[in-house]
Amino acid sequence: MTQEIKKPGSLMAAEAAQCLEVFQKAAVQAVSGPINLPNAIYTIARGSSDAAANILSYEFMRELGVPMTSLPPSVFSIGKGVGLSGAAILVISQSGASHDLVLSAKGAAKAGARVLALTNQTDSAVQAVADLTVPIGAGPELAVPATKSVVGAIAAGMALLAHMKPSYQPKAQRAVEIFGRLSTQHPQTSVLQSAFLRARHVYVIGRDTGYGAAHEVALKLKECCAIHAEAYSSSEVLHGPLQLATNPLMVLMLDTGQADIQVSLDQAEARFRSIDCDVYRIRVPDLEAADVSPAAAAAALLAVMYPIILNTALVLGLDPDRPEALSKVTQTT
Length: 333
Hints:
- The longest helix is centred in the C-terminal third of the chain and has 22 residues, at 294-315.
- The chain has 333 residues and is α/β, with parallel strands linked by helices.
- It has helices at 10-16, 19-27, 47-64, 74-77, 99-110, 125-129, 148-164, 169-179, 189-198, 209-225, 262-274, 294-315; strands spanning 41-44, 68-70, 88-93, 114-119, 132-135, 201-206, 228-233, 250-255, 278-283.
C-alpha cells in the first residue's frame, strides 16, 4: 500500500484552522495544584514558544505585579545556572523534549525555582521535571511550523494565570466567548498576501503583547515563505532600525487595540508612511474581537495571520508543511 501524498500546506492549513477551537478549550481549563506568588518569573523557550512566552510575560506582569522575563536555556544547558530562590520558571515547549529545555528545567529546580510547564505532549521529559504542568491540548501537530500549539500555549498560559489570580478568570472566559464567533478570514487577506509577495524586507511591529505576536509572525514569514522579516517594538523601531527604511520596506503593524499603546503605534505608522514605506496595520477591533485581554488579542492576530502566510508560501511555490532546512523538533544546546 503506497503512502498517501499530501498536498503542500495541507497539514498547516488543517492545524491553523483549529486555532480558535484549541484556544477555547485551553483558556478555561481547570488547573490544580497549590502555587504561591513567586518574587519573579523567568520563561525558558525557543522559537514560536518563545514568542508565546513574550506575549504571556506582558499579561502576567500586568496582572501579578511581579517581573517576568526570558532566560536563555544556555544558562543551564552549557552554563552553571543562576540562583532562583523564590522564583518560578515557566518552560514552554510543544514537544517537551528539547534537550536544552529539559536541562534548563532540571537546573532551575536545583537552583531553587518552582518549575511550571506548558507542553503539548503528555508525559514529556519537561513535564517529568515540572512541579505543575498545564497542557496545551492542541493534539498532534505534524506541520513543521507550529500554529495551533502557539495559540494554545497562550491560552494555557491564561489558564495558569487565572489559577494564580482567580480574579483573572472572567477575562479568560470573555476571550473564549469572543473566540467562539471569531473568523480567521481577515477582511484584507488578498491585499496583505499581495504585499507579502512583493516584499523583500518586512518589519513586523507591535507593542506590549503585540510585540510577541510580531516575533511569531516574523518567524513564520521566514520559515514558511523565506522572506526576510524582523520584529520590533513600535518604541524601539524608530531608533537605529529606521535606517533600513531607506531601502524598499514593507511594514506590518499588529494592533491589539489597547488604548495605552495607540500613541506609540500611531507615531511609528506616521513615520514609516512619511518615508514612503508600504505600511499595513491590522487591528483587533476590525476582527470583531474588541474587549478581549491583550494576550487573547495577540492570539487572535496570530490566528488570522497564519492562513495569509500559508497561502503566500504556496503562491511562492513552497511547501510550508516541510520547510527545506527545518525539522519539527530542533535539538540545540
